[in-house]
Specification:
With about 300 residues, the chain is mostly helical. It has two domains: about 220 residues, Up-down Bundle (Alpha-lytic protease prodomain-like), CATH 1.20.1510; about 70 residues, 2-Layer Sandwich (Alpha-Beta Plaits). Helix content is about 70%, strand content about 10%. It has nine helices and three strands; from the N terminus they run H-H-H-H-H-H-H-H-E-E-H-E. A three-stranded mixed sheet has the order 1-2-3. Helix 1 packs antiparallel against helix 2, helix 1 packs antiparallel against helix 4 and helix 2 runs antiparallel to helix 6. The longest helix is centred in the first third of the chain and has 30 residues.
Length: about 300
């Protein structure tokens, strides 16, 4: 997946969430609905998250320096992890607190009854456009994988984050619509609180999924099995008899660190060995363009 695809999806989500947040806050001010307040804060949190993702992408493009010789690619993982924390605290915990308050002090929606219904309908339309953009931008990288497998295996954090956020936003709007509708029908404000509670639990669950995935990427994930096999095949040949030991790890979404012990052909001189290693590195980069940082150590294959 290119970073351009992720950026396009982020900007689409940010544009939608800013407009939705303003609309929801107006609806809350007119009706006092807890579900509307929870959804308003949710949209603000999502907007802030998209700004963090854009900042992370910008930071990751910095060139390697003495302090960070392998570059800043993992900055995208760090900021995506912060997104999970924001979603958990600002979105999920706030919605649960608002639900607690509503259950303790239930109040129906006494005026502007039509406002929250119209706002929820408009928000669903805007979020659907944002999700459609994220889905369209994800399809080339997703390939034949299922969506859950794509989110789990993706090494680029932006599209999985936007996909999960937009999906959670649409489901949250359904919860809000249900809570508001039942409050309008029954006059019991606790239904509104129940909608807010459902939104909170949803956001906490999505934040937990994101946190686990981003933690794994921050720790350093291996390359995909397909890339591992392609690199191993590319290293063999032209004076390299076999690969004894290979480790490949993501330094960022679009860069791999390749470290291998290789068995050179018997009888190679030092100059010939150096040429063989250079050729093996070139073949690896041609086979998997993400293989930018490569360290090869000549060794002998030992029995056992």
């Amino acid at each position: 997946m290119s970073s351009h695809s992720g950026t396009k999806a982020i900007i689409a989500a940010l544009s939608a969430n800013l407009g939705i947040a303003v609309t929801k806050f107006v609806a809350f001010a007119l009706t006092g609905s807890s579900s509307m307040l929870a959804e308003s804060v949710h949209s603000v949190a999502d907007s802030g998250n998209q700004v963090l993702l854009l900042w992370g992408g910008r930071e990751a493009r910095r060139q390697p320096d003495a302090k960070h010789p392998f570059g800043y690619g993992r900055g995208r993982y760090f900021w995506s992890f912060i997104v999970a924390l924001v979603l958990f605290s600002v979105g999920g915990l706030f919605a649960l607190y608002e639900a607690y308050e509503k259950f303790n002090h239930p109040r129906g929606i006494d005026s502007w009854h039509w406002v929250p219904v119209v706002v929820v309908a408009a928000a669903i339309v805007m979020e659907s456009f944002s999700l459609r953009t994220a889905v369209r931008e994800s399809r080339p990288a997703k390939g034949d994988q299922g969506w859950f497998r794509f989110i789990h295996r993706s090494k680029s954090p932006e599209l999985p984050v936007v996909l999960l956020e937009d999906t959670a936003a649409l489901v949250g709007l359904v919860f809000a619509a249900t809570g508001i509708s039942m409050t309008l029908i029954t006059g019991d404000g606790r239904w509104d609180g129940a909608g807010s509670a459902a939104i909170g639990l949803l956001l906490v669950a999505v934040a937990a999924i994101l946190a686990v995935e981003m933690k794994s990427l921050l720790l350093g994930e291996a390359a995909s099995p397909e890339n591992l096999q392609a690199i191993e095949r590319a290293l063999v040949g032209g004076g390299i008899a076999s690969v004894i030991h290979l480790r490949v790890m993501h330094l960022g979404p679009e860069e791999l660190l390749v470290a291998a012990k290789i068995e050179p052909d018997p009888g190679l001189g030092l100059a010939e060995l150096a040429q063989a290693i250079d050729a093996a590195e070139a073949r690896s980069r041609a086979a998997v363009p993400l293989s930018q940082t490569i360290y090869l150590e000549p060794d002998l294959r030992r029995a056992g």
